[in-house]
C-alpha cells in the first residue's frame, strides 16, 4: 500500500477547504421535512438528492392543529455538486482567457455614513469612498451625533471609524436619553397573493429608537413569512428608512415556466429579406439578386433547442408555486433533409437550394424558373437548373448539375458541371460563352465560345463560333451546316455542309488533338513569347547599369537598387520560362502520343477555303468537294469517300428523344 505523505494530506485538506468556502448554506423553515428539502433545492438550484442537511429543530404536526411546530434545517449542496460547479467556473475562466480578471473598472464613489439610535445606544456605520470619491467629513458625523437627547459621545471612536470604516455593520459610539414612547413603529403587510411583504415605518421622535433589522426579521417570522426574506433590502431600509411608505422586505420566489423548444435556422427563412448585391459605392447590381441559398450535402441547416423544465417558486409564506415545463415541437423535416447524429441538428442530404415552405425545411436539387431575366437575376445553383423559357442577354447560369433551357439563349454565360440542353438556339453576339463538363445539345449556335468535356450535338447550324470538344462535334439535322469559326475535337467533326459558298468566312476544323491540351499549349506559348519580349527589353538596361558600375566601381544607391531589381526580375522570368518549357514539352509529347486519329466527314459539300487539320497536318480545300472524309495517313491528310460516323457512343440527354 503506498505511503500517504504529509504533502498529499495538505493538498487534500486545501482542496476540501476551498470546497467548504464555496459551499452556500441556507436555513429553511417548513411544515414537513420534505417541504423544507424542496424549498432548499429551489434556493440552492440543485436536486434534492444532491443536498446535505442538518436538522436544527424537529417539527411537530400538532394535535387537531394545535401546538404545531415547523421543521428547521440547515441545507447545503453536496461536495460533488460544489466541485462540479468550481470545475465549470475554472473552465469558463480558461476559455475567456482570464479577461474578466484583467478587466479593471474604475468607479469613483463618495463615502457615506449613517447615524441611528438603537435601544439606548448611538450607532454609526461608515462606508469608505472608492476611487477618487470624497471621504466622509468628521464634522458632518459629529453634527448628526450631537443632538438634544445625546448623553455621551466617544469622539476618538468616531474619528477612528470615519477613517477605517465599519463595513456592513454598526459601531456604538455613544448613548442618548431613551424614551420608549417615542420609538419608531412599523407594520408588516403581506400582499394578498403572498408574492411580497412590506414594512411601513413611522419616524421616531426625539429620544426614540430607530427600527433594527432584527426587529423587522422577527416581525416577518411572527406573521409566518418564511421565504424570500431579503437581508439586503432590510439593511438598506434600516440605513436609509423611508417613512410612512411601504418598503419591500421579502419577495416570493416566482415560478419560472420552462422555455418551449424552438428551431434556430442557419439560413434566411424569409425570402423577402434576400437582397441584391451592392458595390462598395452602394450601387445595386440587379443581376445578382441572391435569391438562391445554396447548400451542400451534410451542411447543417438548423438546430432544435430542446424544451426546458420549469422551476417552481414559493410564496413568502412558503407555499409552492407550480411552474409548467416547456412544450416540445417536431422537427420541421421536408424533402432531402435529416436529423444528424447529435439528434438535434438538421442537415442536408444532397446539394441544392434550401427552402422553408409550410413550416418545413426542404433541399431542392432542381431549380425551376420560367425564364432568366431581371426578375430572377443571375443564377448560381448547386444542382440542376431547368429554365422553362429563355435566358435573356446579359444574364448567366452556373450550375453543378445539368442546365436545361426550353427557350433560346442570348449573349449569356452558361457553366455546368454536367450537361447543357438548349431546345432552341444560342445567339451569342460574340459575347456569349458555354462551358460544361458533359455534353451540349442545341438547335443552333451562333457567335459564341463553346468548351465541352464530351460531345457537342447540334441539329441545324454552327456559325462563327470558337468551339472545342474532348470527343465529337456532330451536326445531324436536315441543314447541319458549319459556317465560319474555329472547331477543335479529339475524335470527329461531322456535318452535312462545311464552309460558305462564297468563301468569305474562314472556317478552320481540327481533329486528332486534345482540345484542352492544345488550348493550354497555345496559352503557354503566348506567355513564353511575352516573357522573351520582356527579357529583350531588360538586357539593355542591365548592360547599361553594369557598364556604369565598372566605370565608377560603386553605383549610387538608387541605381544599385534599380540594378538589383532588374536582376531579380530577370531571374524570376528565367525561372518561369524553365517551368513553361517543361510543361510545353510535356503537352507536346502527350499530343504526339494521342491514339485518336480523328476524322472530318461531310455528307454534303465542303466549300473552298475550308482548312482541315488532322493531327497538326493541314489540308486546305481549294475547290468544293462533296461527300468526303478527311483522315490522317502516313503523315498527310487524306481524302476518302464519305463514311457515316459511328453515333452509338453519343448518349441522348436524359428525358429527351
Describe the structure.
With 657 residues, the chain is an alpha/beta fold. 25% of the residues lie in helices and 33% in strands. The protein has ten helices and 41 strands. It has a 20-stranded mixed beta sheet that branches. Strands 4-5-7-6 form a four-stranded antiparallel beta sheet, with helices on one face. Strand 16 and strand 17 (320-321) form a beta hairpin. Helix 9 runs antiparallel to helix 10. It is elongated. The two termini are 86 Å apart.
Q: Structural class of the helices, strands and pairings?
A: alpha/beta
What portion of the residues fall into strands of 2 or more residues? 25-35%
* Count of individual helical segments: 10
Radius of gyration: 46 Å
β-strand number:
41
Overall pLDDT level: 85
General form: elongated
Please report the distance between the alpha carbons of the first and last residues: 86 Å
Major sheet characteristics? 20 strands, mixed
Low-confidence stretches: 98-103
Helical content (DSSP H or I, runs of 4+)? 10-25%
Amino acid at each position: 500500500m503506498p505511503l500517504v505523505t504529509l504533502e498529499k494530506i495538505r493538498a487534500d485538506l486545501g482542496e476540501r477547504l476551498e470546497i467548504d468556502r464555496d459551499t452556500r448554506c441556507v436555513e429553511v423553515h417548513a411544515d414537513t421535512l420534505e417541504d423544507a428539502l424542496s424549498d432548499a433545492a429551489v434556493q440552492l438550484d440543485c436536486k434534492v438528492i444532491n443536498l446535505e442537511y442538518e436538522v436544527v429543530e424537529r417539527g411537530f404536526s400538532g394535535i387537531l392543529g394545535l401546538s404545531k411546530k415547523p421543521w428547521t434545517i440547515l441545507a447545503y449542496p453536496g461536495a460533488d455538486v460544489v466541485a462540479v460547479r468550481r470545475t465549470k467556473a475554472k473552465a469558463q475562466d480558461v476559455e475567456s482567457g482570464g479577461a474578466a480578471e484583467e478587466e479593471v473598472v474604475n468607479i469613483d464613489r463618495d463615502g457615506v455614513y449613517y447615524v441611528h439610535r438603537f435601544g439606548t445606544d448611538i450607532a454609526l456605520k461608515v462606508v469608505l469612498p472608492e476611487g477618487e470619491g470624497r471621504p466622509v467629513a468628521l464634522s458632518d458625523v459629529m453634527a448628526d451625533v450631537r443632538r438634544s437627547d445625546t448623553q455621551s459621545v466617544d469622539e476618538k471612536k468616531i474619528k477612528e471609524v470615519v477613517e477605517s470604516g465599519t463595513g456592513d455593520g454598526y459601531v456604538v459610539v455613544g448613548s442618548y436619553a431613551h424614551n420608549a414612547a417615542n420609538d419608531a413603529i412599523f407594520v408588516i403587510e403581506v400582499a394578498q397573493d403572498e408574492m411580497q411583504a412590506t414594512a411601513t415605518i413611522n419616524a421616531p421622535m426625539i429620544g426614540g429608537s430607530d427600527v433594527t433589522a432584527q426587529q423587522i426579521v422577527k416581525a416577518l417570522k411572527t406573521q409566518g413569512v418564511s421565504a424570500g426574506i431579503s437581508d439586503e433590502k432590510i439593511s438598506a431600509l434600516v440605513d436609509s428608512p423611508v417613512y410612512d411608505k411601504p418598503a419591500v422586505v421579502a419577495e416570493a420566489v416566482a415560478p419560472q415556466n420552462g422555455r418551449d423548444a424552438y428551431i434556430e435556422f442557419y439560413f434566411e427563412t424569409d425570402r423577402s429579406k434576400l437582397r441584391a448585391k451592392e458595390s462598395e459605392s452602394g450601387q445595386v447590381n440587379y443581376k445578382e439578386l441572391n435569391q438562391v441559398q445554396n447548400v451542400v450535402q451534410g451542411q447543417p441547416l438548423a438546430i432544435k433547442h430542446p424544451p426546458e423544465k420549469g422551476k417552481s417558486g414559493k410564496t413568502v409564506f412558503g407555499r409552492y408555486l407550480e411552474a409548467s415545463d416547456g412544450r416540445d415541437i417536431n422537427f420541421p423535416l421536408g424533402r432531402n433533409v435529416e436529423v444528424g447524429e447529435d439528434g438535434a441538428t438538421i442537415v442536408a442530404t444532397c446539394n441544392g437550394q434550401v427552402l422553408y415552405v409550410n413550416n418545413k425545411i426542404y433541399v431542392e436539387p432542381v431549380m425551376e424558373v420560367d425564364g432568366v431575366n431581371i426578375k430572377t437575376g443571375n443564377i448560381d445553383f448547386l444542382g440542376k437548373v431547368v429554365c422553362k423559357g429563355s435566358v435573356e442577354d446579359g444574364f448567366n447560369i452556373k450550375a453543378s448539375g445539368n442546365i436545361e433551357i426550353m427557350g433560346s439563349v442570348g449573349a449569356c454565360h452558361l457553366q455546368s458541371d454536367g450537361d447543357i440542353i438548349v431546345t432552341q438556339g444560342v445567339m451569342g453576339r460574340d459575347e456569349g460563352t458555354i462551358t460544361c463538363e458533359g455534353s451540349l445539345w442545341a438547335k443552333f449556335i451562333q457567335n459564341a465560345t463553346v468548351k465541352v468535356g464530351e460531345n457537342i450535338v447540334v441539329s441545324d447550324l454552327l456559325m462563327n463560333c470558337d468551339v472545342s470538344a474532348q470527343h465529337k462535334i456532330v451536326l445531324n439535322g436536315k441543314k447541319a451546316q458549319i459556317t465560319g469559326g474555329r472547331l477543335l475535337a479529339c475524335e470527329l467533326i461531322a456535318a452535312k455542309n462545311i464552309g460558305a459558298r462564297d468563301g468569305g468566312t474562314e472556317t478552320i476544323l481540327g481533329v486528332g488533338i486534345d482540345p484542352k491540351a492544345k488550348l493550354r499549349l497555345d496559352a503557354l506559348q503566348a506567355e513564353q513569347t511575352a516573357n522573351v519580349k520582356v527579357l529583350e527589353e531588360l538586357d539593355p538596361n542591365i548592360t547599361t547599369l553594369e557598364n556604369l558600375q565598372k566605370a565608377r566601381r560603386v553605383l549610387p544607391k538608387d541605381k544599385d537598387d534599380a540594378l538589383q531589381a532588374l536582376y531579380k526580375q530577370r531571374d524570376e522570368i528565367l525561372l518561369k520560362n524553365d517551368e513553361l518549357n517543361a510543361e510545353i514539352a510535356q503537352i507536346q509529347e502527350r499530343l504526339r502520343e494521342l491514339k485518336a486519329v480523328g476524322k472530318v466527314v461531310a455528307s454534303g459539300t465542303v466549300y473552298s477555303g475550308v482548312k482541315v487539320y488532322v493531327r497538326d497536318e493541314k489540308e486546305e480545300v481549294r475547290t468544293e468537294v462533296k461527300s468526303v472524309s478527311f483522315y490522317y495517313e502516313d503523315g498527310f491528310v487524306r481524302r476518302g469517300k464519305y463514311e457515316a460516323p459511328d453515333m452509338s457512343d453519343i448518349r441522348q440527354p436524359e428525358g429527351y428523344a
